[in-house]
Specification:
By secondary structure, the chain is mostly helical. Among the domains are: 35 residues, no CATH class; 40 residues, no CATH class. Helix content is 51%, strand content 4%. The protein contains seven helices and two strands, in the order ββααααααα. It is extended and about 70 Å long.
Length: 140
Amino acid sequence: MGFVKCPRCELNYIEESEGFCKICKREMQGENSSDDVELCTICNERPAIPGRDICLVCLKEMNVGADDDTDDLDHEEEAVGTVDENAIGSIDPVSSMDEIMPDINDDIPEGEYSEIENELSLEAIGDEEEEKSDEEEESE
């Protein structure tokens, strides 16, 4: 008695005595899988609308709240205004990444690169944490 791939989907393995896998049998009988139903991410009670992650009730509540908020936003936008360039000062725009990236070759001597890399290494930090936890366990 060995295992073979399902002749319908060719994904799942079945015993030689079986005709199809359990999944294909369910699909052929017309049963819907309960895994396909996604619940609303807000209320976690009702099924979500296809293509969205929220249900119809939560969507309606959000739209009602959005209508109320749009009136408030209009009043807030009027109060904010624009920023005056004189208040900021003269700031030169950055035209390329070369202006942003510092030239690190001049700042750090070549011999210290490996020391800095070891200090910032995640492996070294993990080893230190393991040593601390071992010391704490021994002290208890």
